[in-house]
Amino acid sequence: MNSSPVVVVTGANGLVGSRICATLVERGASVCAVVRRAGTAPDLVGVEERVGEFFDPAFAAAVVDGAYAVVTTVHPMASDLETQHRIAVEGTPVIARAAASAGVERLVHISTAGVYDRSPGVGDVDETSALVDDAAGDYAVTKRDTDAALAEVDGITRVLLRPPAILGAGETSVWNTLRPAAIREKERARRALPQQTFAWVHVTDLATFAADIASGRVAASTDPSTGPVAGACTPANVAAGPATVRDYHSTVTGALGVEPVWDDAPAWTGQILADRARGWGWVPRVELADALAEIDAGLRRQPSG
User: How many CB atoms lie within 10 A of CB 258?
Assistant: First the structure.
């Protein structure tokens, strides 16, 4: 790695992608920010916007040329199954193969802890735990299958980062914005299992880890407990401290001035174990109280109704 590595980031205008771009610049990297619409990449010194479809082979080959690493963050989670499969499962390996052919050192893919089976009674989950089956829903299944497709790409070190709920302010933030909007508007969205585990990570801590791996600050290893295995595909969970659905749901409903509806049913109460990430030097900095306070403050600033 040179002193100013070039890192390609797909979905550079998204909640996660934009934070990764900013963190990479702070790390001294140059960023090639891939977006679909001109003028939407982070407006930062050190960030070059490239407009196109990362799953187009010619465009992918052009943007990865000369790069040290690629970070992929795109998944059309609100789309239908066919779209999710086409863009994520079929599309993400296109830029991964282009990167491998161009001699790019690393690919960091933002996956999800939703690929794990977290049925009631399963217990704690680590990177060796069972994955969801085909009945788990479009998002979890297509994320699972994207991971599997990337595992088949040879010639490049691949890291699959698996965060649970990603907290952080932003218009597209599921947990700070979209889910609270549903709770405000729909009575059924106010129903929750209070004892269920709420596995989470703040976007700042996720972006820091992704940037450290992509910029080479996390050294490769022959042991997945100490670093990404060179030339292999290594998953790593990225989860912060313990929390329950009651913690999150009470914060949102309290800020919105609506009453939660607590249900009583079996729920998953284990933890997403992130020992591997911590073994690579990752330490989450954002505490649960601060993450929830950010949600509360953001919702209280919004006009009611």
Answer: 15
CB 175 within 8 A of CB 303: no
Q: What is the chain's pLDDT, residue by residue, as a tens digit (305 residues)?
A: 456 899 999 999 999 999 999 999 999 999 999 999 999 999 999 999 999 999 999 999 999 999 999 999 999 888 899 999 999 999 999 999 999 999 999 999 999 999 999 999 999 999 999 999 999 999 999 999 999 999 999 999 999 999 999 999 999 999 999 999 999 999 999 999 999 999 999 999 999 999 999 999 999 999 999 999 999 999 999 999 999 999 999 999 999 999 999 999 999 999 999 999 999 999 999 999 999 999 999 999 876 55
Strand partners, 160: 109, 235
pTM for this entry:
0.96
β pairing state of 200-202 and 261-262: unpaired
271 φ/ψ sector (left φ>0, alpha ψ -120 to 50, else beta)? beta
Number of Cα atoms under 13 Å in the Cβ half of residue 62: 12
Question: Domain 6-301 is in which class?
Answer: alpha beta
Closest CA to 273 of 246, 236, 247: 236
Q: Which two tokens stand for residue 245?
A: 């659905």
Give Cβ neighbours of residue 58 (< 8 Å, ≥ 6 apart).
Answer: none
Cα four-point dihedral sign 275, 278, 284, 287: positive
Task: Count CB atoms within 10 A of the CB of residue 84.
Answer: 23
The alpha carbon of 113 is separated from its chain's Cα centroid by a whole number of angstroms, namely: 9
Domain positions in the chain:
6-301
CB 211 within 8 A of CB 30: no
Contact 74, 54 (CB under 8 A): yes
Contact 157, 231 (CB under 8 A): yes
Q: Collapsing DSSP states into helix, strand and coil, what is residue 42?
A: coil
Nearest residue to 57 via CA among 104, 10, 97: 97
Q: Please list, in sequence order, all residues whose beta carbon lies within 8 angstroms of the beta carbon of residue 145, skipping any fewer than 6 positions away.
A: 85, 88, 89
